[in-house]
């Protein structure tokens, strides 16, 4: 993806609508980080916060307060601030969007031999910078999730370019002695939150890997598939292997057709036949947010266009909706998320009144109505709620309330994950854990924080 385009995307989300892109860019570049901070984290551990912030040599003010609060409440981010001290000191002097743009641009310079340490080093910086912009109120929720998603898709695309190119040079891709996935017809589809630019700090990235069988003679099909399967496995290792430098993103390929028996990369034609013949309701729902994110984007989007009759049916398929709801219930029961409500330990994603409830409500309406109303085919949850309200399919007050709760829940989810870089959605169970989370999110009154969160969960339920 073009780096200038990425910066333009983030700028369009930050610049107020009344400004032209040029005026907005000029205004942003004239503003310091201190001017852009609208809220700040509070230090749970004052001594730790002061210890980590001191080397930056900042005078009292919004930036110093932000660093002290973040370091004093998140052990994970405090560790990143210490490890990336030299880089962060320089980044704090620049426009926040340009810092993101620089990190994205550096992905393309990583050679094949350095992919793992190179991407992990950039991911550490991205995680730290995005967290600071989030906790400082500099970026909105959508800007935060977009930054994380842009990094994921560009890391995947660059990895694919290098790995496909290397296999082509070795003569392992029939008829392709050079070039990347675009010429060879390999593409990765982003599913779920990645497809909608909604990644959180500890998201798995759900992918389906495909290749265009029509680029190869029938006699070369097996050899080409073997090469793409090898490339896919190597790419997933680059992203998810845990090394001394950490990891980039955990990856999940299980949304592909019949994952128990199919290889990790399959032919586009085979995937189409599967969905046309035995595709299930939950697979339709999974494709609402699907988009081509790496490799041959044109081939990937053409494939998704051909799946439109499967994803967006013109008749009302209540059996598929019932199956979807039953799957959601089975997940909650499997994870022990049913029963009486208690905030301590509550799963903000899958539990009652959580993120998944809002997503399910939104996607159910899309699946029922989207076949005959193309304007409702939005990938993002907030955009879909707005479209449903704009088309008078749900009440505007309902859409606005769910949007507000969704964004608040996602901020809490991010805070939970930022504390220890944990893949968790559970609200802390003990008093110190709740206080740490409340302080990280800038709320010094823990009782008020807990009451507000409980009220939101109950309102969604």
* Shape descriptor: globular
Radius of gyration: 23 Å
The overall pLDDT average reads 90
Show unreliable segments: 1-30
Work out the helicity level. 55-70%
Number of strands: 5
SS-derived structural category: mainly alpha
For the report, how would you describe the main beta sheet? 5 strands, mixed
Chart the SSEs and their pairings:
Layout: H1 3-14, H2 21-30, H3 33-36, H4 46-53, H5 62-73, H6 75-83, H7 85-91, H8 96-107, H9 115-135, H10 141-169, H11 181-184, E1 186-190, H12 192-195, E2 205-211, H13 221-240, E3 251-252, E4 265-267, H14 268-278, H15 281-287, E5 291-295, H16 297-306, H17 308-311, H18 318-334, H19 355-369, H20 381-390, H21 396-420, H22 431-440, H23 446-460
Parallel strand pairs: 2-3, 2-4
Antiparallel strand pairs: 1-2, 1-5
Descriptive terms for the model:
461 residues, mainly alpha, five-stranded mixed beta sheet, globular
Architecture overview:
This protein is mainly alpha-helical. Helices cover about 60% and strands about 5% of the residues. Strands 1, 2, 3, 4 and 5 form a five-stranded mixed sheet that branches. β2, α13 and β3 form a beta-alpha-beta unit. α20 runs antiparallel to α21. The longest helix is centred in the middle third of the chain and has 29 residues. The protein starts with a helix and ends with a helix.
């Amino acid at each position: 993806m073009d780096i200038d385009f990425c910066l333009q995307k983030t700028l369009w989300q930050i610049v107020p609508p009344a400004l032209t892109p040029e005026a907005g860019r000029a205004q942003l570049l004239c503003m310091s980080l201190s001017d852009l901070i609208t809220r700040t984290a509070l230090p749970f551990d004052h001594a730790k916060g002061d210890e980590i912030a001191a080397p930056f040599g900042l005078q009292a003010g919004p930036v110093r307060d932000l660093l002290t609060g973040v370091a004093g409440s998140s052990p994970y981010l405090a560790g990143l601030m210490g490890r990336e001290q030299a880089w962060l000191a320089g980044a704090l002097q620049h426009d926040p969007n340009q810092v993101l743009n620089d990190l994205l641009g550096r992905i393309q310079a990583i050679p094949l031999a350095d992919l793992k340490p190179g991407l992990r080093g950039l991911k550490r910086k991205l995680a730290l910078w995005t967290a600071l912009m989030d906790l400082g109120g500099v970026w909105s929720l959508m800007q935060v999730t977009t930054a994380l998603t842009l990094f994921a898709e560009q890391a995947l695309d660059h990895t694919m370019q290098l790995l496909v190119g290397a296999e082509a040079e070795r003569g392992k891709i029939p008829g392709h002695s050079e070039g990347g996935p675009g010429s060879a017809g390999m593409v990765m589809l982003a599913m779920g939150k990645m497809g909608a630019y909604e990644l959180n700090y500890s998201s798995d990235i759900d992918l389906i890997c495909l290749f265009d069988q029509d680029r190869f003679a029938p006699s070369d099909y097996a050899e080409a598939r073997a090469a793409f399967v090898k490339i896919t496995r190597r790419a997933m290792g680059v992203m998810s292997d845990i090394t001394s430098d950490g990891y980039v993103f955990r990856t999940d390929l299980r949304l592909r057709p019949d994952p128990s028996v199919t290889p990790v990369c399959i032919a586009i034609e085979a995937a189409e036949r599967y969905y046309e013949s035995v595709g299930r309701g939950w697979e339709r729902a999974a494709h609402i947010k699907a988009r081509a994110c790496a490799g041959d984007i044109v081939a990937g989007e053409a494939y998704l266009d051909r799946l439109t009759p499967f994803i967006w049916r013109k008749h009302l398929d209540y059996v598929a909706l019932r199956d979807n709801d039953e799957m959601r219930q089975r997940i909650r029961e499997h994870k022990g998320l049913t029963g009486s409500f208690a905030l301590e330990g509550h799963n903000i994603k899958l539990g009652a009144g959580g993120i998944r409830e809002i997503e399910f409500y939104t996607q159910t309406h899309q699946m029922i109505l989207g076949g005959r109303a193309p304007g409702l085919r939005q990938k993002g949850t907030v955009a879909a709620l707005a479209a449903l309200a704009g088309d008078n399919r749900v009440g505007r007050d309902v859409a606005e309330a769910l949007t507000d709760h969704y964004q608040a829940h996602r901020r809490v989810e991010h805070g939970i994950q930022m504390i220890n870089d944990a893949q968790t959605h559970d609200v802390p169970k003990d008093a110190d854990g709740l206080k740490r989370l409340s302080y990280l999110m800038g709320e010094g009154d823990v009782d008020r924080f807990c009451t507000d969160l409980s009220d939101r969960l109950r309102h969604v339920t």
